[in-house]
Amino acid sequence: MALASLAASLPIAASASASAAAAARFRFRIGFRGMASASAVGAAAGAPARVGVVQMTSVGDVDANYATCSRLTKEAAASGVKFLCFPEVFSFIGSKDGESVKLAEPLDGPIMQRYCSLAKESGMWLSLGGFQEKGPDDSRQYNTHVLIDDSGKVRSSYRKIHLFDVDVPGNMVYKESRFTTAGDTIVAVDSPFGRLGLTVCYDLRFPELYQILRFKHQAQVLLVPSAFTKVTGEAHWEILLRARAIETQCYVIAAAQAGKHNEKRESYGDSIIIDPWGTVVARLPDRLSTGFAVADLDLSKVEAVRIRMPIAEHRKFDSDWKSSTKQ
């Protein structure tokens, strides 16, 4: 079957249900909030929507990071961008253990309110990945992906489920769970840019999350704000992102931290946007620079890929299977 020239206006293939085991373990939040249904959003989407993916080097200064985010937002607005995606820990990266917990705030606190005002003033939706949201007590925080609409309202939020507790070879030991409480809710939300699936960084290594977002909640665009380490980024960043795009037939927007934040921490960079066929359609020319790349999201491409390669109809593992393991 020739898939190089995909049709531009074909219906989205029917979605299969998610596994009962996953449904029992995590809650699901559907982000309608007065908007049209997912199918209506996809059907009504005509002209491609211009989106931007940010690359930056956050530091241990909330005001300095906001100044960078504000400048990039205004530049993106001038370029016609309607939806701008920022990386994980966009507002603060500390150099000492526990610093971020002390700065953590609720989503209605002054830090996030500045970004809400920025979105409203710019007339732009913002994806803010990895905000230090105040946790269940003073010693804990959530790593929260916040979605703000163009009126300045928090449209939805997702608390990172998979925490980065890893001894990176030749690098350093990370233990995110020391100060962070994991989330337990999978989040999909409607938007003018398609149905969005919200994730954060290390989630990328767990394909079942993205399978649920696609096949249970009909995601069309997957957001992966990240701060990949230099070592893991060199080995796996683009490969994992393209795999998630191909296996879900979704756009993937992956905003990345880049370069040295302090003496202890360095991020890989390489912010990219990938289409549902797995092709990189936007990236910054310099993997470590601060800036943004732009692409036009055409949801008809999502529809075309899914009808020509109908994996949603062919999936088997949501059904009951006999085990070959002898008890």
Give me a quick take on this structure:
The protein has 327 residues and is of the alpha/beta class. Helices cover 28% and strands 27% of the residues.
Low-confidence stretches: 1-25, 30-45
Find the count of extended strands (DSSP E, 2+ residues).
Answer: 17
- The residue-averaged pLDDT reads 86
User: What's the story with the biggest beta sheet?
Assistant: 8 strands, mixed
Number of helices: 9
Radius of gyration: 19 Å
Helix content: 25-40%
Broad shape: globular
Strand content: 25-35%
Structural class: alpha/beta
User: For the terminal residues, how far apart are their CA atoms?
Assistant: 43 Å
Q: Please trace the helix and strand order, writing H or E for each element.
A: HEHEHEHHEEEEEEEHEHEEEEEEHH
List keywords for this structure.
327 residues, alpha/beta, eight-stranded mixed β-sheet, seven-stranded mixed β-sheet, disordered N terminus, Nit1/2_C-N_Hydrolase, CN hydrolase domain-containing protein, hydrolase, C-N_Hydrolase_sf
